[in-house]
Amino acid sequence: MSTYTPPLKDASFVLDQLIGLNQLCEKLQLEDxxxxxxxxxxxxxxxxxxxxxxxxxSVGDEKGSSVSAGKVQETAGFADAYQQFVENGWATLTGPxxxxxxxxxxxxxxxxxxxxxxxxxxxxxxxxxSQGAVEALIAxxxxxxxxxxxxxxxxxxxxxTMNLTEPNAGSDLAAVxxxxxxxxxxxxxxxxxxxxxxxxxxxxxxxVHLVLARLPNAPAGVKGISLFIVPKYCLDEQGQxxxxxxxxxxxxxxxxxIHGSPTCVMSFGDNDGxxxxxxxxxxxxxxxxxxxxxxxxQAVGLQGLSISERAYQQALQxxxxxxxxSRRDGQKIAIIDHPDxxxxxxxxxxxxxxxxxxxYSAAADIDxxxxxxxxxxxxxxxxxxxxxxxxxxLAQELTSLNIQVHGGMGFIEExxxxxxxRDARILPIYEGTTGIQALDLIGRKTxxxxxxxxxxxxxxxxxxxNQLTASDNKQLQALQHPLKVALESxxxxxxxxxxxxxxxxxxxxxxxxxNLMMMGYLTGGWLLARSALLANKLITQENPYGDPxxxxxxxxxxxxxxxxxxxVKQHADTVLTGLSNTFALDIEQMQGV
Length: 593
Known about the structure:
By secondary structure, this protein is an alpha+beta fold. Helix content is 58%, strand content 12%. The protein has helices at residues 8-19, 21-27, 35-63, 78-87, 106-140, 143-155, 285-321, 339-370, 374-406, 417-424, 434-447, 452-470, 474-500, 505-539, 547-563, 566-577, 587-591, and strands at 66-68, 71-73, 159-163, 179-183, 186-197, 207-213, 226-231, 233-235, 241-244, 247-252, 263-268, 274-279, 323-326, 332-334.
C-alpha cells in the first residue's frame, strides 16, 4: 500500500500565483486571511490526512460498514478519526461566523477538501454532504431552522445528507413519489430513498436529512416538489436530539468501490410518519436542492482530482521501487527509467495539475461571486458542469494509468491500485451523470445567455495567447501554437452550437458530450499555460518554491500542450459534424442482427 503526501507546494502555488488569494481576501474584506495563513492551514490538514485518514482508506475498502436492525455501523476507526476531525475544527472552516464557522474563503476549503478526498474518499464524503446541507439551509432555511440546525451541522456535531433518488426516480426527479402530509407545525414524511451516502452511522448524535417529497395536491412534475428537513432524532425544547424519528436504513448497497462509505436505502414513515419541517416555500424544493447539488457537483469534480493525485503518487512510488530491465552494462534499472512509464507518469501529473488549477479557480470564482461580481457568477455557472463532468471522466483515465504502471501487480488487490480505480468509477455517475452535465453546459450555460459567458472565457484565453507570443522564453512561445489551434477549434464549435442546437434537442444531445470534454481540455490547457507564465516570472526572483519546481511547471504545461490539447480539436471536429448519422441505428442494427 502506498503512503499519501499532500501536494502542498503545488496547492500553495495555485492559491498564491494563479488565484491571487491575497487580493481575493482583500476584495472579500477578510483582512486577517492571506496566503501565508492558508499555507499553514493546508499543512496542518495534511497531517491529519496523511497520518490518520490515509491509513484507514484500505481498511474501509476491505471491511466497509454493516447494518443491523436499521442501524449502520461505520468502519472501525472512522469514528475516532471523525472525532479528531471535529475537535480540530476542520468542519467549521468555511461556515459563517454567526453560526460558529471560521468564515474562510471557499477556495481555501476546496484546497483542504482535496486532501481529505485524496487520503480517504469514503470518509470525506460524510463532511462533504454536511457542507452541502449547510449551503442549502443558509440560502433557503427559515431563521428558526437555521438557529436549530446550522450550528451543530457547521461544527460537525451533526452530519447532513441529501435524499433525492427513489427506486423509480433516478435522475428524473419529476417522478419523485415520497409524500409529505401537513400536521400542525410540521409534516409527516413517507416514502423510500435509495443511494443515500452516509444515510446512517454512529459517529454523531444526530443526522439531518434533506428530503424531497410531494405535498397533497401539489402540481405534477418537478414543479410539485418540496424540500424538508427530517432529523434522525427529533429535537426537544432545548434543541437537543431526543426521540428517534420514524426514519431508518433498511439495507446497504453492495458497491464496486467506496466501501467505507455506507450507501443506504432509507425508509421514511414506516410507522406513524417521519416528522419533517418545510424548507422555504412549498413546491420550490427542486430549485432549493440545486443549491446543495451544485455545491456537491464541484465537490465531486474535486474528488476526480483527489483520487487521481493519490493514484499518481502510488504510481510514482512504485515506479521507483520496481526494478525491471537493465542497461547495456548489465545494471538493473527501475521502471521509471523506461520512456513509456515516464509518459504515463507525466500524463497523470499534467492531468492532475490541470484539474487542480481548474478546481481552485472555480472555487475562487464562487468567492468572487459572493462579493457581487456578476462576471464571476457567470463563470461559476459555466465552470460547474466542466468541473464535475470533465474532471471525473479524466479521473477514469488517470487511475487506470496507475494500474498500467504497476503492470500485473496493478491487477492484484493487495497493491491498492485497484481500489483507486474502483473508487473513482462512481464519480461520473452521481450528482448527475456526465451526459446530464454535458446537456447542462449547452442548454443552461451556453444557449441561455447566448454564449456570453463562453465568449468571455474565450477572450481570457486569447489574452494568455498574447502573453505567450510576447514571452522571450522559447518553451512558453512553443505553447502558443497548440493553445491557439485549440481555441480556434473551440470557438468554431461554440459558434456552431449557438447556431444549430437551440431548437433541436436531438442535435444538442448528440454533440453535448464532445463539447463538454472539449471545454475541459481547453480550460485545463489554458490554466496550465497561465501557470507556466507565472512560474517563468518567478524563476529569476527570490521565491518559496525553488527553480526546479517552477521549471517543472513549465515542462508540465508543455507536456499537456503536446498530449492533451490536441484532443480539443478532435472533440470540436466531432461537434462540427453534428453527429447526424452516428446515432441513427435502430435496435436491430445495434444488436448486430
